[in-house]
Structures are given as C-alpha cells and as structure tokens.
C-alpha cells in the first residue's frame, strides 16, 4: 500500500509564503515524476509544478517565478515553496507521484488547503 501525505497548508496574507511537503510511504520501488496540482472551488484540477526523476521541472505559467518545486529522493518527499502568494492561489493542493509499487501507477494525496486572504 502506498500513501502520499501532504502538509504545510494554511491561511496566509497576500504576498506571504508557504512551504508544502508531501511524503510518499509504503511499498515503493522507485519514483519517477512527482508533482503538485491544485483545485479551486468550481474549477478543474490543474498542474502547478512537476519534477522528474532526472531533475527536470516545469511550472504553470501562473506560478513561474513565484513557486519552486524540489525533491528529497532519499526521503521520497517533494516540496513546493510558494512565495508572493496571491488570492487566486487559493485552492486545495494535491500531491501526485508516478511510481512503481506492486505495479506502476499514479498515486494522489488527499490534499491540503491553501487560503490566501487578508
């Protein structure tokens, strides 16, 4: 069984920062891509940032220059440093991992709420 557990969400004022963490645990042989998605009320889930096992990264245009994704492969953990937060960043943020357990598949965390408001 594989679990992804996010942490670090909360309420922050516009212009503030938050750091999200997502730890993968369980029967894991290898992890390829890890990514962060978000879903705001009434909107579709969207990719925020992704990190490949080779070190490549990509970001949604809306967060480029403000968010940074990083990984600690030894800990099976991915982070999302979010700076200069805006009200439109408010959403539930989900961690996603493309990994090999008993089979190859994609796993999701349950999400963590980020609210940007004064």
């Amino acid at each position: 069984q594989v679990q992804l557990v996010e942490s670090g969400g909360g309420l922050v004022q516009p212009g503030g920062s938050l750091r999200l963490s997502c730890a993968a645990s369980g029967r894991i042989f290898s992890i390829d891509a890890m990514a962060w998605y978000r879903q705001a009320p009434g909107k579709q889930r969207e990719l925020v940032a992704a990190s490949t096992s080779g070190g490549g990264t990509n970001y949604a245009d809306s967060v480029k220059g403000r968010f940074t994704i990083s990984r600690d492969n030894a800990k099976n953990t991915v982070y999302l440093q979010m700076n200069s937060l805006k009200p439109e960043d408010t959403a539930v943020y989900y961690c996603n991992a493309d990994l090999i357990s008993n089979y190859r598949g994609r796993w999701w965390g349950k999400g963590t709420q980020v609210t940007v408001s004064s």
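The two ends are 40 Å apart (CA to CA). The chain has a mean pLDDT of 96.
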